[in-house]
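Recap from last week: sequence in, structure out.
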Amino acid sequence: QVQLVESGGGLVQAGGSLRLSCAASGRTFSSNPMGWFRQAPGKEREFVATISWTGGNTYYADSVKGRFTISRDNAKNTVYLQMNSLKPEDTAVYYCNAGRGSFKKPPYDYWGQGTQVTVSS
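Predicted structure tokens:
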């Protein structure tokens, strides 16, 4: 059974930082792109960032570009999202996403259960 388990969410003040992790189990994603989406209350789920299977290519939503950094460790089957200069509008449930496809064309087949990020003003 494939599982993506996110961790690292929490409450942080505006301007602060958080690092999200997503550990995969049940299959390896070392040859697949991985990424992050988020969903704020009352809004649709939206793309945040993806990373190619090599880690050499990344793709960001304009709203997070320059503040968030996606990375991965294929040996650990894990993807990370470093979030700096957080804003109240970044408040959302963040979801890990992985599977076959192009790093420029998410979403993919597998989803995590989500982790809450709350940014206070």
